[in-house]
Specification:
- The chain is α+β, with helices and mostly antiparallel strands and 665 residues long.
- The protein folds into three domains: 18-182, Histidine kinase-like ATPase, C-terminal domain (Heat Shock Protein 90); 232-388, Ribosomal Protein S5, domain 2 (2-Layer Sandwich); 410-540 and 625-659, Rossmann fold (3-Layer(aba) Sandwich).
- It is 37% helix and 19% strand.
- Strands 1, 2, 3, 4, 5, 6, 7, 8 and 9 form a nine-stranded mixed sheet that branches.
- The longest helix is centred in the middle third of the chain and has 35 residues, at 374-408.
- It is globular, with a radius of gyration of 29 Å.
- The N and C termini lie far apart (70 Å).
Length: 665
C-alpha cells in the first residue's frame, strides 16, 4: 500500500469567514432551528449591549414577508469611519472579520454580552444576504454582504436626524437545510426575557407573514411589544404567577468592585426550584460562579437567622441547600466587565472572582431583608423546615426501597421484563400502559435490547407530591428502580441502565393523561435525562386498513386518506358512512367498498407481531424525541396543568378548547 503523502500542502488554511461556514456548529451550536435562532440572538444581543450602555431605548424586530429578518436599534450606530489596522470602515471590519468589535479593550462598552466579537460576522458568514444600514452623524450609510463577503462599497444613501443600526439578514439555505423560518413563540419568550432584564427598553416584534405551528397562514401581520419597569422583580412575578405564593417578591440590587448584581426571588408552595441565571443579559442555563455564590449565601443566611431567632431547635440539624431551595423561583443577573464563559454559547459563567462578590453582597442584603420583614422571614423558614422534614422522610423511604430492591435481586422490580444487553448505546426501556399492552409488548419485542415495564393505572402526579410520598407509590418506585439512576440527592446519570426511555401509551384521552403524568415526573426529577435526549414518545398507528391480503397502517388522518385512495375508496362515500356510524352503536372495524378500517383505541388491540412492526421495530417505527426548546415555557405549562391552583388550568383549557381535534371521550 503506497504511503499517503503528508506535507505542507496537506494543511488547509481557511481564510476570513470560511471557517465559520465550514464548521458552523462551533459558533452557533448547531444548524437546526436552534442554531437558526442563534443568529437573531447575536444581533439582538448587540442592541441590548447598546441599551446596557445607556444609549438604546427601542429595539424593533421584523420577520419580513420575503424571509428576511430585520433588527433595528436606536443606539449610537456602528462607527463607519476607517479602522486604522484594517484600512476598512469599522462597519465592514465588524461584519467581515472574526473577533472584531467594540467589546474589546473597554473602549466601546463597559459591559457586554461577551468578548468573543463574533456575533455580526458569524451572522454574515451564515447568511445568503445581509443589508447593514447605519444612521450616524446625520447620514444614512448602507453596505451589503453575502456569505461573509462584501458585495459593494459602503455608500451614503441619505440624510437622517436619528442614530441607530439596522440589520436585515437572510439565513443561508445551504447551511440551514432544515428550515429558514423563525419560530414566533421562541422569539417572544426570548424578547420578553430581555425586556424584563433591561429596565425601560421597548422591544417590538412584527411578523409580516404569520403562520400557525402547523404551517397554516394567518390573516394580516401580528405584532407584540414588551416594556417592563420592574426589572427582574417583574420577571420573578411572571415566572411564579401560576404557583401559590408563600412570600412576596424579594428584590436585591448591589454594586461591587467586581460586578453589578440584581437578584429577585419568591417562595411558592411548589416542590421544585426554578432559578434563572444571566450574565450581561445572556442566559446561562448551566449557571456558574454567580449561581454558586447565591446558593451559598442563601443557605448560610437562612440558617444563621433561624438559629438567632430560635426558629430552629438546638437539636435540629441545619437546613441543607436542598431544603432552602424547595419552591424557590429566582432570577440572578450580574453585569461583569470581562465575562469568561465556558463555550461560545455562553452556557456557564466561569469568572472565579464573581462567586465571593455575589456571596457577600447577597448575604448582606438578604440578611437585612429578613431582619426588616419578620413575618415573611418566618413564612420562608417554615417552608424550608417543612422541606427538611420531608427530606428526612424521603431518605428513610428511599433507603427502604433500596433495601427491598436488594432483597429481590439486582434491585429490579418483578414486573420488569429486562433485556439481555447491558450496552446503553443500544438498550431501550418501554414504559407501557396496562398489563394487556405490556403482555403484547413483552411477546413482540427484541429481547436483546428492549426491556418492558408495564404500569398499572395512572401514576402519581408528582407536581403535587414531595419525594417521600413519591417513593411510597408502587408504580413510581418500580420505574425509579428500573432506571437505575436513583433520585433526588443520590441521582447519578452514569448509572442509567437504558440509553432510550420510551413512553408508550394508548392514543386516547387516558393515554395522553398518563403520558403527561410521566413527562411531569421526568421533567421535575430526571431533568438531565430529558436534556441529554434519553426520553422518547412512541407513536403507534391510529388505523389498520385492509383490503384482501394487503395491509396499510396509518399514523395520521392524512396517511389514512392516502391509504384509502390507494385502495380505491371514494372519500365522499367514506364520509357518508362515518356520518351514519355516528348515529349507530357499532364496534370493531368498519367496511367501506370492500376495505376494512380499524381504529386502534389501545395498544392492547394489537397482537405482538403488529405492535412490533408498527411501533417497536427500529427499521419502521416512528418515535418523537422529548426536548426542551423553551425551559421557561415548559416550567409554566407543567405548573399550570399539573399544579394545585385550579383557575390558571381552567383558563388554559378554555382558551384552547376550540383548537382541539378528534377528541375521544
Amino acid at each position: 500500500m503506497a504511503q499517503q503523502e503528508y506535507s505542507a500542502d496537506s494543511i488547509q488554511v481557511l481564510e476570513g469567514l470560511e471557517a465559520v461556514r465550514k464548521r458552523p456548529g462551533m459558533y452557533i451550536g448547531s444548524t437546526d432551528v436552534r442554531g437558526l435562532h442563534h443568529l437573531l440572538w447575536e444581533i439582538v444581543d448587540n442592541a441590548i449591549d447598546e441599551s446596557m450602555a445607556g444609549y438604546c431605548t427601542e429595539i424593533d424586530i421584523t420577520l419580513q414577508e420575503d424571509g428576511g429578518i430585520r433588527v433595528f436599534d436606536n443606539g449610537r450606530g456602528i462607527p463607519v469611519d476607517t479602522h486604522v489596522k484594517t484600512g476598512k470602515s469599522a462597519l465592514e471590519t465588524v461584519m467581515t472579520i472574526l473577533h472584531a468589535g467594540g467589546k474589546f479593550g473597554g473602549g466601546g462598552y463597559k459591559v457586554s454580552g461577551g468578548l468573543h466579537g463574533v456575533g455580526a460576522s458569524v451572522v454574515n458568514a451564515l447568511s445568503s444576504k445581509v443589508i447593514a444600514v447605519v444612521h450616524r452623524d446625520g447620514k444614512i450609510h448602507k453596505q451589503e454582504y453575502s456569505k461573509g463577503a462584501v458585495l459593494g462599497k459602503l455608500e451614503v444613501i441619505g440624510k437622517t436626524d436619528i442614530t441607530g443600526t439596522e440589520f436585515t439578514f437572510y439565513p443561508d439555505p445551504d447551511i440551514f437545510k432544515e428550515t429558514q423560518k423563525m419560530e414566533w413563540e421562541a422569539i417572544l419568550t426570548r424578547m420578553r426575557q430581555q425586556a424584563y432584564l433591561t429596565k425601560g427598553v421597548k422591544i417590538s416584534i412584527t411578523d409580516e407573514k404569520p403562520e400557525t405551528p402547523e404551517g397554516v397562514a394567518l390573516e394580516g401581520p401580528r405584532k407584540y411589544r414588551f416594556y417592563f419597569e420592574g426589572g427582574v422583580g417583574s420577571y420573578v412575578q411572571h415566572l411564579s404567577e401560576n404557583k401559590p405564593a408563600i412570600s412576596e417578591v424579594i428584590s436585591v440590587e448591589r454594586e461591587t468592585d467586581v460586578c453589578q448584581l440584581e437578584v429577585a426571588m419568591r417562595y411558592t408552595d411548589a416542590y421544585s426550584e426554578n432559578i434563572w441565571c444571566f450574565t450581561n443579559h445572556i442566559h446561562n442555563p448551566e449557571g456558574g460562579t454567580h449561581l454558586t455564590g447565591f446558593r451559598t449565601a442563601l443557605t448560610r443566611t437562612i440558617n444563621a437567622y433561624a438559629r438567632d431567632k430560635q426558629l430552629l431547635k438546638e437539636k435540629d440539624d441545619n437546613l441543607t441547600a436542598e431544603d432552602v431551595r424547595e419552591g424557590l423561583t429566582a432570577v440572578i443577573s450580574v453585569k461583569v466587565s470581562e465575562p469568561q464563559f465556558e463555550g461560545q454559547t455562553k452556557g456557564k459563567l466561569g469568572n472565579s472572582e464573581v462567586r465571593p462578590a455575589v456571596e457577600a453582597a447577597f448575604a448582606e442584603a438578604f440578611n437585612e431583608y429578613l431582619g426588616e420583614n419578620p413575618n415573611n422571614a418566618k413564612a420562608i423558614i417554615g417552608k424550608c423546615s417543612l422541606a427538611a422534614r420531608a427530606r428526612k422522610a424521603a431518605r428513610a423511604a428511599r433507603d427502604t426501597v433500596i433495601r427491598k430492591g436488594a432483597l429481590e435481586g439486582m434491585t429490579l422490580p418483578g414486573k420488569l421484563a429486562d433485556c439481555s444487553s447491558k450496552d446503553t448505546q443500544k438498550t431501550e426501556l418501554y414504559i407501557v400502559e396496562g398489563d394487556s399492552a405490556g403482555g403484547s409488548a413483552k411477546q413482540g419485542r427484541n429481547r436483546d435490547f428492549q426491556a418492558i415495564l408495564p404500569l398499572r393505572g395512572k401514576i402519581l402526579n408528582v407536581e403535587q407530591a414531595r419525594l417521600d410520598r413519591m417513593l411510597n407509590n408502587n408504580e413510581v418506585k418500580a420505574l425509579i428502580v428500573a432506571l437505575g439512576t436513583g433520585i433526588g440527592e443520590i441521582f447519578d446519570v452514569e448509572k442509567l441502565r437504558y440509553g432510550r426511555i420510551v413512553i408508550m401509551t394508548d392514543a386516547d384521552v387516558d393515554g395522553a393523561h398518563i403520558r403527561t403524568l410521566l413527562l411531569t415526573l421526568f421533567y421535575r426529577y430526571f431533568h438531565e435525562l430529558v436534556e441529554n435526549g434519553n426520553l422518547y414518545i412512541a407513536c403507534p398507528p391510529l388505523y389498520k386498513i385492509t383490503k384482501g391480503k394487503k395491509v396499510e397502517y396509518a399514523y395520521t388522518e392524512a396517511e389514512k386518506a392516502d391509504a384509502l385512495k390507494k385502495f380505491g375508496v371514494d372519500i365522499e362515500v367514506l364520509e357518508g358512512a362515518e356520518e351514519k356510524e355516528n348515529t349507530e352503536e357499532d364496534g370493531g372495524p368498519k367496511k367501506v367498498s370492500g376495505v376494512s378500517i380499524q381504529r386502534y383505541k389501545g395498544l392492547g388491540e394489537m397482537n405482538p407481531e403488529q405492535l412490533w412492526e408498527t411501533t417497536m421495530d427500529p427499521d419502521h417505527r416512528i418515535m418523537m424525541k422529548v426536548t426542551i426548546s423553551d425551559a421557561e415555557k415548559a416550567d409554566m405549562i407543567f405548573s399550570t396543568l399539573m399544579g394545585s391552583d385550579v383557575p390558571p388550568r381552567k383558563k388554559f383549557i378554555q382558551t384552547r378548547a376550540k383548537s382541539v381535534k378528534n377528541l375521544d371521550v
